[in-house]
Amino acid sequence: MNFKTVDSYNFSGKRALVRVDFNVPLDKKTFAVADDTRIRGALPTIKKILSDGGAVVLMSHLGRPLKKLKEDGTVDFEKHTLKHVVKPLAVLLGVEVKFATDCVGDEAFALSSSLKAGEVLLLENLRFYKEEEKGDAGFSEKLAKHGDVYVNDAFGTAHRAHASTTIVANYFTAENKMFGYLMADEVSNANKVLNSTEKPFTAILGGAKVSDKILLIENLLNKADNILIGGGMAYTFFKAMGGKTGNSLVEDDKLELALQLIEKAQEKNVNLLLPVDSVVADKFDADANSSIADSNAIPDGWMGLDIAAKAVYDFTQVILSSKIILWNGPMGVFEMEKFQNGTKEIAKAIAAATDSGAFSLVGGGDSVAAVNKFQLADKVSYVSTGGGAMLEYFEGKELPGIKAIAG
Ligand code: AMP
User: Which range of residues forms the domain containing residue 278?
Assistant: First the structure.
């Protein structure tokens, strides 16, 4: 895939309209930015444009203001205004940040049209307009008037055909629309996994439900040599094969599907590996009594909440011999100390394989939280912040935000 990035563009004298992901968590009481990771993520692109001698108009969404209304049915502006981002952004950037209290009103256009080289303007939350999520053409055309050049640096919303992520690109010529650094990094690292000819390619999938990962497993069956399945989703497979799963998380309406996936893996010669043993608990609780059981013979009243030693050993052997590794979803309820070991050991195995030359990509909210928790984020090759977008990309879908620029 060929795509243009900010790196090869000279922004001197240009106004760049940049779609960033400033959908940051806010403190519930003070509305202060509680985690500035996403703001930091946008800095390299903004700095590049400014250092070329360009001006930057930033646009983003924050939460879902038209869906999460106040109790009286009105829009909660205080909770959803991007004004909360102005100060932390200005501090991180070391540049004053102007703010427009609307993204398409007269004030916003007055501010963006008078913006000088080296200046930064942040527009108010795009999602105060229903036209944003609808991908409305008129709204997109108005947004486009804020810039001579369009830059998309918001991978997290690339799977949505919204006005600011996709439709707005129609109003710029091919030379004047491109990816920011963050977006380009996400796409090239995902492509490294998906298009690699190096083998073995191992996908490690976990998390709660198999139903969330069906399309992902199906697509990976065409690409991976090994698929390791842990987490709650493993028990639907064990039950489907006639195993006893006690009170473990099982999706009874997906038993047939689980059998089909096992069959497909055999047909395609993919090694689909399940965890032979589990750490079982008598309740879903951090202080539950725990024990070890074979994953297909879990006693009545007990539930599997983590993979146990034999499974960790099996998975580790496969991971250590892999050249390409994709990890999405924890191996157990890693939020509770008693059930974190499987996830931690798998994270360590991925780190060790990476150290020996494998390329590893970790993505999806909970596995990212896990590598952060175990302080292994800098020991894997790439941590994707994409969430839903990353999942859809690995499902083999064409993301509208990427297509709008890469064609
Ligand atoms: P997902 O969002 O589908 O990746 O699921 C992540 C969640 O799955 C985490 O909050 C884990 O606590 C949970 N999870 C992992 N393993 C299990 C399990 N064996 N039983 C119940 N929940 C689990």
Answer: 196-394
